[in-house]
Design goal:
alpha+beta; five-stranded antiparallel β-sheet; 18% strand; 636 residues
Length: 636
């Protein structure tokens, strides 16, 4: 609109300009309000982050010792190459794959996988690119600090385990927490000591079970940096709080004796476990073959380390497999010890009349099941000494399946032992459900007398873990006190550090035994039979040790039918024991795979562990050669 009066035109133009100015001011005011009030905290934090950095100070992980204070596991300083995510804003991560791969010797696929995983993690968390950086790696990063300011060198504790795989299945190993683990509830619910991407945690063994004790609480350095990320000054330091040191129940000398013996067995596969029957403390636990846990704490991020780990996973001998708690084996004649005790307690036999016919075997229907000898009508002591199968066939029929199942339940053979290690399996024990579950299609799942016979001498329907059998026999040896086998003796206290409160001393959390009342007369009778196995011409006579009365039971467990038990299908050899017989201080079990008779291979394995124990407690007993007793005609 145009007015002839110029004054009026000027007023209109001024009014329009005034309106435009007001509109701009309103927009600017609204924008300032949004930036300063609505988003003020966000931008203040971003500005502060550009200037202030929190550099994590990793806390030392607690060390692990044997029961006598011998250092088993510690951490040594190493250097990691870290990528600072704050400096990656607006940058293409894929552009780093080539240079980092070439300069640091990393696989491109490893870097791509690492970058992809970190995209979903909080932006303030940094990324470990390479663990255990060598001097050449550090020099490469420092020489390219202007080109790659997002790379940093950080000191980091690295776990170190005993050589030759000693105690590998007990101690376990540590490794970087995975993205899948970070999603799990048990790793999210730790407000006092949160897990974060790149955190090193226990992945197996005691490292895993007691990770909450062993992990320290990280400290940090609060520093001011320039636009290139270079530190200008330090504003604050919060020191880390170390993790709790753990004292295990392990006796290192006994452990070494067990592992050395297994390494030299014909099959080089088996288990030896020893424990204190009076409290459940495990003195030795060896499973062979073994592996090197340093692979997972030191070499797993390298191409060579990953190839080594893949080879372990494909190894047909299963070296990662802890046979003590994950191996289910037919127990053979070691099963006769709980059978004898239960038979007495249930009244199937009595102390005054425990004689049962051997008959050289038993015929059920048209099936004859033989005994290894012809023992007449022995009492329970002699039946244990010579390992008379015929005796226990008929004892099982007297007890019936219900009596065998009651024995299993009383002695917890159908439950996990509760040992403080991950992945323990439950033994398989006789029941109608068990037969129905494993009867081939078209077979008869009905429980019959012949099944009771098989279930009575440790074959067909009995598959136990070595630790479960040791716990049972140790409990019988102490007169009915069944302790939970365990490896934790003490997690030591750690004093308060800075903002972190004191962490108190801890012990094993299930110290009380299950008590199963056993008659003193019954207990004495069974222990006499076990004593005679070693000391009165029984099947374990070759390991007799004068002055240290070993009471035990041999076992030879078939893995295939008779006639086919040769080569790799040879019988498993067992020996389970307590000593001294009348007041046990130590219990031990050995299972050697596919070697033959228990008295020949497993009993000497246990003797090797007892020798290590006696060398400390009663060394004078080892100054003369073992007086091996003359064995009977029975072999087991």
């Amino acid at each position: 609109m145009k007015f002839e009066d110029e004054t009026q035109n000027l007023r209109v133009r001024v009014a329009v300009i005034h309106g435009l100015v007001m509109a701009v001011l309103v927009v600017l005011g609204a924008r300032l309000y949004f930036l300063q009030v609505v988003s003020g905290d966000y931008y203040a934090e971003r500005a502060e982050n550009q200037r202030i950095r929190l550099l994590r100070i990793p806390a030392p992980r607690g060390a692990i010792f044997d029961r006598h204070g011998r250092l088993l596991v510690d951490s040594r300083s190493t250097y990691n190459i870290i990528l600072l995510r704050e400096d990656m804003k607006g940058k293409d991560w894929n552009e780093l794959v080539g240079p980092l791969s070439d300069g640091l010797g990393l696989e491109p696929d490893f870097l791509r996988e690492r970058f992809e995983t970190m995209r979903s993690q909080p932006a303030f968390e940094d990324i470990t690119i390479k663990e255990g950086a060598q001097s050449a790696d550090i020099a490469w990063v420092e020489a390219r600090s202007l080109e790659f300011p997002m790379l940093s060198i950080r000191e980091q504790p690295q776990r170190r385990y005993p050589d030759d795989g000693v105690l590998a299945h007990v101690l376990g190993y540590v490794g970087e927490i995975s993205s899948e683990q970070l999603k799990q509830e048990k790793y999210r619910d730790f407000a006092e000591n949160p897990y974060y991407p790149g955190a090193i945690i226990g992945q197996e063994g005691m490292e895993r079970v007691y990770d909450r004790y062993l992990r320290g609480r990280d400290g940090y350095r609060k520093v001011e940096v320039d636009s290139r990320g270079r530190i200008q000054r330090e504003l604050e330091t919060v020191p880390p709080q170390p993790g709790q040191d753990i004292v295990t129940t392990i006796d290192f000398e006994m452990q070494k004796a067990a592992e050395d013996y297994l390494r030299n067995t014909p099959s080089k596969r088996g288990v030896i476990v020893s424990m204190d029957p009076n409290n459940g403390e495990i003195l030795a636990m060896a499973s062979y073959p073994t592996f090197d846990p340093n692979l997972f704490s030191q070499r797993i991020s390298t191409p060579e380390g990953r190839r080594e780990a893949n080879a372990l996973l494909r190894d047909p001998l299963f070296p990662l497999f802890n046979r003590a708690i994950r191996g289910r084996y037919p127990p053979g004649s070691t099963w006769k010890i709980p059978m004898a005790m239960a038979g007495l307690e249930q009244g199937a036999i009595t102390t005054k009349n425990s004689n049962v016919a051997c008959g050289g075997g038993i015929t059920i229907g048209n099936k004859f099941t033989r005994c290894m000898g012809s023992h007449g009508s022995p009492d329970v002591r002699y039946a244990i000494r010579v390992s008379c199968d015929g005796y226990f066939y008929r004892l099982g029929l007297k007890m019936e399946l219900e009596g065998i199942m009651k024995m299993v339940d009383d002695y917890d053979l159908n439950k996990k032992t509760g040992v403080d290690l991950p992945h323990e399996l439950t033994s398989w024990t006789p029941s109608r459900e068990f037969k129905a579950r494993f009867t081939p299609k078209g077979g008869d799942p009905t429980w019959k007398d012949i099944d009771t016979v098989y279930a009575s001498f440790g074959q067909v329907y009995d598959f136990v873990t070595p630790l479960a059998m040791l716990k049972t026999v140790a409990g019988i040896g102490t007169g009915g006190r069944f302790y939970t086998p365990h490896l934790l003796k003490e997690a030591k206290a750690v004093p308060a550090v800075g903002p972190f409160s004191e962490r108190p001393q801890r012990g094993f959390d299930r110290p009380e035994p299950k008590v199963v009342p056993l008659s003193d007369e019954h207990h004495r009778l069974v222990m006499e039979g076990m004593w005679e196995v070693v000391n009165a011409g029984g099947t374990g006579g070759r390991i007799k040790l004068e002055g240290f009365d070993i009471a035990g039971k041999t076992g030879t467990a078939q893995v295939v039918s008779l006639g086919k038990d040769v080569g790799k299908n040879k019988d498993h050899a067992w020996f389970v024991s307590v000593a001294p017989a009348w007041k046990p201080q130590v219990a031990a079990i050995a299972l050697i795979e596919n070697v033959g008779f228990g008295g020949t291979y497993a009993a000497p394995a246990v003797r090797a562990v007892y020798d290590a124990y006696v060398a400390k407690t009663r060394p004078e007993l080892l100054t003369t050669p073992t007086q091996g007793g003359k064995t009977t005609e029975a072999i087991d």
